[in-house]
Structure formats: structure tokens, C-alpha cells
Amino acid sequence: MNSSSPKWLAFAPGIFLVMWSTGYVAAKFGLGYIEPLTFLTLRFACVVVVMAALFMVLRPPLPKSRAEWMHLATVGFLLQSMYFGMCYMSFKAGLAVGTLALILSLQPIIVGLVAPRWSRETVGWRRWNGLLLGLAGAVIVIAARSEIAAPSALGFLFAALALFGITGGSLWEKRYGVSHHPVTSNLVGFAAGLIGVIPFAVAFETMHITWSWQLAVSLAYLIIGSSLIAVGLLLAMIRAGDVSRVSALFFLVPPLAAAVAWLVLDEVMPPVAWLGMGIAGAGVFMATTPKKVMA
Questions:
Q1: d(CA 58, CA 50)
Q2: Does any domain span residue 180?
Q3: Which residues does residue 209 pair with via DSSP β-bridges, in sequence order?
Q4: Is 294 a domain residue?
């Protein structure tokens, strides 16, 4: 983050990683009672309702131009509909969780390749070494804990679209992002995401919901933690810093999600996965720490 960034952004990476990583575990509590895309539709709809209520009370300023409206909607569609929606569609197409995680772990590398031309930021050798080290650590954790299988053509297509969504959303926010009131940006962004995911839920699922306290707790956590806090922090960090540096944080998502699942759900955490977590952490530190701090 640059020197002019708000001081609270110094805590943003840690909070973002906790909220984003634990979201996968929270989703598991609810998915036994609702189909994935229906869950996503309900989650986005609840965010829109909450943001609409806050908008009526707070009356925050609206975007000033059609371009700003389109920017908020584009980022919302790419991050919500494309990323989350296509992740769920890849599961429905039979793609293994480990295979999807492996494909998505390419996101920081792609951002590092595109960022110099797209957002005119410098990606030096130290950061590249950190990105490659982070990728190696993430792959070790994924391979140690998950099933890795050759994807079907349809499963690979959905995974590639999810990768495009998270990569494109990050790069678009960096180049065209303008700071808006969080209520306004969330309302527009999640409305666009909701519009994008509803057709898939209607076409591919029964949209039946079995209400339970587990689903309610899971939904509440995903709305507040993953949708509002984590996504908001991600966009704020991208606007305030280098997009390639922020994207490197995603290498720590599979290790942290695995550690939380080990603690909360008693999922197996092989010793080699802990090694991968350490390697990923070292890579992220190298990729995200300014040169003067590391000297």
C-alpha cells in the first residue's frame, strides 16, 4: 500500500484472508440444505436487500456518470457472477475441488504478466520470485489434501471462466476503479452479480431450500464476512496498491482454508501440506513486502 493510503488498510490483508478463506468452510455448513447456485442467488439477494435498506436510510451519493455505473456493474458481474457462479458450475460439471483450486491458483501469475501493460505497474524479479514460490506452496497444499483429476471439457470451461472472472475483476478495478461509498458500490455490484447468476440457477437447479439453523448461520456469515467485508477489502486494497501484490495473497487462501477445515471440520491435514503452507507464506511475504523493508 502506498504512503497516502488510510492507516487501517495495513490490517486489510490479514482480515481479507481470514474472511475469504473461512468462507469455504462456512459454505459447507449450508450446502447440505440448498443447491449451490440457489445458495449463491439467495446470498446475493440478501446483500442487495441489506444494501438497499441502508441506501434508503443513508442516501449516499450515486455514481456521477454512465461510465462509473458501468464500472461498478462490470466488477460486480466479474467477481460475483463469473467467479463464484462459474466455480459452482464447475462443481456441477464434476470438476474435483483440487483441480479447480489448482486452476485458480494461476490468477496471481496471470495478473503479474498482464499488470505491466494493463495498469502500468512494475513487477520486479523479487516479486516474481515470490509469486513463483507462492504458487509452488499452494500447489503442494492442494495436491496433498485434494483429489487432482483431469477435468472434463465442460468442467475446464467453467473453471477457466471463473479464473477469467477473478483476474478480470481485479485488473478492471485497478485500471478503472473510482472510490465510491461502500453502500453504493455494494448495491450496484451485487445487483449485477445477482442478475448474472439467476439464469443459471433457474436453468440447472430446482431452487428448493430446506431451511435450518445451519443454513441461516452459514448464509449470515457469507453475507457479512465474505460478501461485504472480504470483497470490500479486496477492492480497496487493489485501488490503493499494486494489483499483482494484492493478487499474491490468493496463494494463501488454499492453505488457510485447509487449516480452518482441519480445526473446525476435522479434515485431514497431511504433514507435507504444512510444508506447503510455509512455502506459500514465504512467497507471499516476498511478493507483498516493499523492497526497502526486505533490505
A1: 12
A2: yes
A3: 34
A4: no
Nearest Cα to Cα of residue 241 among 290, 284, 286, 283 = 290
On whether the CB atoms of residues 243 and 170 are closer than 8 A, the answer is yes
Q: Is residue 2 part of a domain?
A: no
Residue 10 has pLDDT above 70, yes or no: yes
Strands (E), the chain: none
pTM of the model: 0.80
CA–CA dist 271, 142 (Å, integer): 13
User: What CA–CA distances, in Å, run from 105 to 1, 84, 212?
Assistant: 23, 15, 33
Q: pLDDT for 22-59, tens place per residue?
A: 887 788 778 889 998 999 999 999 999 999 999 999 99
Residue 220 lies in a domain: yes
Are the C-beta atoms of 41 and 209 separated by less than 8 Å? no
Q: What is the pLDDT of residues 153-199, one digit of tens each?
A: 888 899 899 999 999 988 888 877 667 788 898 899 999 999 999 99
- Three cell numbers written together for 245: 501484490
Range of the domain at 52: 7-289
Task: Specify the number of domains making up the chain.
Answer: 1
